[in-house]
Design goal:
Protein name: Acyltransferase 3 domain-containing protein
GO molecular function, one term: acyltransferase activity, transferring groups other than amino-acyl groups
Distance between the termini: 42 Å
Shape: globular
Number of strands: 4
Domain Acyltransferase: 242-633
Organism: Aedes aegypti
Structural class: mainly alpha
Radius of gyration: 27 Å
Strand order of the largest sheet: 1-3-2-4
Number of domains: 3
Pfam families: Acyl_transf_3 (PF01757)
Number of helices: 31
Helix content: 55-70%
Length: 664
């Protein structure tokens, strides 16, 4: 299937989404809103300026509800829970309101804890003492205040139980306590990196020839890194696969668009009914269901390039040893760890960053993730945050890096096995592909899960931390192994076809796959909405069959595109993707992927109030995020990614192996 066919299908899908989105805008203007409001925030700025100590609390409220369709329906229900509210409360306002009530009225309005069958609050040890203090001071007050407002302002006489999540204050002692040793470490690392870049660049311009050749100067010099940045790779394999760097740019932008859409379902909004309205339309539901394709694309690319490079290496040096695999793994860690751990540390520091002023939705944007990362950040450091035992995500996008790292290590074991038994490469890869699909289908069957990614606003508030499909299917490495193995197979086919040892035109299997790729892709793209509209028996044959298609169509289509590309001359699209502009931007893909979520959180923190959702606001957020991500990605490339890779590679890999060479 030609690459232009896939891109044309994507453009058509986006056009359909735009048309139906416009219809949604027109139909949502007359909406009276959701009662009681899912989000209600007092004036954050006024509360903290006028009152002393200006305490503002973020509160989760639950009301009793029986037979909620979100829990009981066999369909996927995309809406918010009507019995879970997120309110921001000014304590001073509540004190004034409750003071007007007599003791009998206060007792009537107070609601003891309500037991519900869903998770609405994150219990974390790192903030337990803090929460106990908040609840002892303000818990009963806010409980009464919430129920008074439900009756007075919204004519809702069903009382809710209030759980304080966090409170912010103007108290200088509390503010000062947020600045701890981790903040000092982050500031010290940042200053050191920037200072080294400035110093190395100055020496490059003014220093002696001997000092210019020092590894630190060479690695951190802006001029030399600019040369590396715009340099064109001349290798033979890059001529065949250079367009992949351009493809990465567009896939990255798609990832950013998905996360921008998620923002309006996860953070406080003045009109949450708008996002619910969007999810009434098939095209939007199908668009949301394509999110796993981005994961499949990245895994296929990684697997294919790994196999291509491995086969090329053993062709040039057949007698490789285990040092080859050790070096490959170490080189990968040297490339990935500095940027990843720097932004992980930045997330742990959170709102204590020097000069950062907390905004109205700063708790949702910054503090929640900061608390989670302080408790569970070790999972990210070990690249295991994607596994099912890690229920609460720290560093949202880190799950992919964990899964990719696990698949890479697994693939290295497979390559070592192939190196040991080279004639068994075909049965090994086919067996692994079958096993990976059986494992996924087995989990779907046993846990009676949905066959497609369920876009549920009720789960988006906690970033799908407790959504079983995300935890058990979307994130684990073993349920994504089919894509990585498909990439390995494609890389093997490329190597064999290039050397004239394989004629795909004579393969019946290849002929069949060519015929079924487009129909299967159409099914995978167009039918997910049916599982929102109709109830299907979980663990049925229909569900398992669609699961198999849904979890493979993206990888199959991409592999067939890659096979088509290496068998034909580049057309207009491939030439554009392989252009100097796109391949240069492609070098920023890793930095942009890692930094865009912390950047998005900072942008949300500075929002003047809770967000108002519209297609325009989503589009503008995506535009700003894309531009800023690539600007800061360029800075990170020059200050952190490229310099630290060169320095660590020199001192840890080349020196330890006795092959240290001059860094140019």
């Amino acid at each position: 299937m030609p690459l232009r066919c896939v891109l044309s299908s994507g453009v058509l899908s986006l056009l359909l989404i735009g048309i139906q989105g416009a219809i949604v805008v027109g139909s949502s203007r007359g909406d009276t809103g959701i009662v009681p409001p899912i989000y209600r925030y007092d004036d954050f700025k006024m509360c903290r300026q006028i009152n002393s100590p200006g305490v503002f609390c973020y509160v989760r409220i639950v009301l009793e509800s029986k037979d909620d369709p979100i829990d009981t329906s066999s369909k996927i229900v995309a809406s918010y829970r009507r019995n879970q509210l997120d309110w921001g409360m000014c304590v001073a306002d509540c004190q004034r309101e409750v003071a007007l009530l007599d003791e009998r009225e206060r007792q009537r309005l107070f609601q003891p804890k309500i037991e519900v069958n869903f998770t609405y609050f994150l219990h974390m040890e790192v903030i337990r003492d803090q929460l106990n203090e908040y609840n002892s001071k303000y818990g009963k007050l806010i409980n009464i205040c919430v129920n008074n407002r439900l009756e007075r302002d919204h004519q809702v006489y069903q009382h809710g139980y209030s759980q304080i999540e966090h409170c912010v204050t103007n108290d200088p002692l509390v503010v000062r306590s947020e600045f701890d040793w981790l903040t000092v470490v982050f500031v010290a690392i940042t200053v050191t990196l920037v200072g080294t870049v400035l110093g190395a660049t100055a020496i490059e311009w003014l220093g002696s020839s001997q000092s210019k050749d020092h590894v630190i100067v060479s690695a951190f010099s802006v001029r030399r890194n600019w040369t590396r940045f715009i340099e064109v790779n001349k290798s033979e394999s890059y001529k065949d696969f250079g367009y992949i760097d351009g493809l990465r740019v567009f896939v990255n932008i798609y990832v950013l668009s998905v996360h921008c859409f998620m923002v309006y379902g996860a953070v406080p909004s003045s009109n949450p009914e708008f996002i619910e309205g969007l999810l009434q339309y098939r095209s939007i539901l199908n668009f949301g269901a394509t999110a796993p394709i981005t994961v499949q694309i990245f895994f296929v690319i990684s697997g294919m390039l790994l196999m291509v490079n491995y086969l090329k290496d053993i062709e040039h040096k057949p007698q490789i040893g285990f040092d080859y695999f050790r070096t490959k793994i170490a080189n990968r860690w040297v490339r990935l760890l500095p940027v990843y751990h720097f932004f992980l540390l930045m997330t742990v520091v959170g709102h204590a960053l020097p000069g950062l002023e907390l905004g109205p939705i700063g708790y949702t944007a910054l503090i929640t993730e900061r608390n989670v990362c302080r408790e569970r950040g070790w999972e990210n450091m070990l690249f295991v945050s994607n596994l099912p035992f890690s229920l609460v995500p720290c560093f949202l996008q880190g799950w992919y890096l964990g899964a990719e790292q696990q698949l890479f290590l697994g693939a290295m074991l497979v390559l070592a096995l192939i190196w040991k038994y080279p004639r068994s490469i075909k049965p090994i890869l086919v067996a692994l592909l079958v096993i990976s699909n059986v494992v996924t289908l087995g989990i779907i069957y046993k846990l009676r899960l949905e066959p497609v990614l369920p876009t549920k606003l009720s789960e988006m508030k906690l970033l799908f931390s407790f959504e079983k499909w995300f935890v058990q299917i979307y994130q684990p490495s073993y349920t994504n192994a089919n894509s990585y193995i498909s990439g390995l197979i494609t890389g093997y086919l490329y190597h064999e076809a290039k050397r004239g040892r394989l004629s795909l035109d004579e393969s019946k299997l290849y002929s069949v796959l060519r015929r079924v790729t487009v129909p299967l892709t159409a099914i995978g793209l167009l039918l997910p909405c049916l599982f929102y509209e109709h109830g299907f028996t979980r663990a049925s044959f229909t569900v398992l069959l669609f699961t198999f298609i849904y979890r493979n169509y993206g990888a199959l289509a991409l592999c067939m595109c890659f096979i088509y590309c290496f068998r034909t001359r580049p057309g207009l699209i491939r030439r554009f993707l392989a252009s100097r502009l796109m391949t240069t931007l492609g070098k920023l893909s890793y930095s942009v992927y890692v930094l865009h979520v912390p950047l998005l959180r900072l942008m949300l923190n500075y929002a003047p109030s809770i967000l108002e959702t519209s297609l325009t606001s989503i589009g503008l957020l995506l535009l700003r995020l894309t531009i800023l991500s690539y600007i800061f990605g360029l800075v990170v490339y020059f200050v952190l990614e490229q310099p630290m890779y060169l320095v660590l590679k020199h001192y840890l890999l080349e020196r330890s192996s006795g092959k240290a060479k001059k860094v140019t």
